[in-house]
Amino acid sequence: MDAGIVVPLVVLPLAAIAVFVWYRRRLADLQGTDDLPSVSGVRLTAEALHRLPAPSWRVIHETSGRLGDIDHVVVGPPGVVAVTTVMGERPDRAKLVDAAAAHLVATAAVNRGEVDDLARSARARCDVWARIYWGAPDPARPPAEEIATGSVLVEGQRLREWLAGNGETVLEPDDVDRTWRAITVGIGRPDPAT
Q1: Which of 11, 120, 167, 170 is the most buried (most CB within 10 A)?
Q2: Cα-flanking dihedrals φ and ψ of residue 148, to 5°?
Q3: Closest listed residue to residue 58, CA positions, set 145, 165, 172, 188
């Protein structure tokens, strides 16, 4: 056999195999990674809370670990709200209430307890534990639903709408600032007013 024919007959299949192996490895690498950045629910809630008008509203971010499962504390005219973020669909209110209403009240009191203790030092109270759900929005439902005294389920996409329409004025501007400072200092951060 002519050497001019043997070389292409050997090299071409080897090159084809090398390209095939490289292509398969590249596909495996692409499947193993997600090109879309992941966004945490806590970050989504933080972004929504950043858009609240100041000085009417004050927010303490990144409190997890210092206040149990509470991610943020919101202080505004309607009072103090302890916030926990959930990535997922907002559950049906009726199913939760039917399950264990007394348990829901106790759970809300326990979850907002540390925030309430800190707010009391400023003569305020934390009466609401809000769980913010970042699932698919449901415009047929209200932005928030109270499932038990002090426990509210809120659709993340309408968080600001719920806060803006959340009851009467409980805290005046000076009370908002004093309470915000007390909670901020209470979790070990520097006094924001100094």
Answers
A1: 170
A2: -165, 165
A3: 172
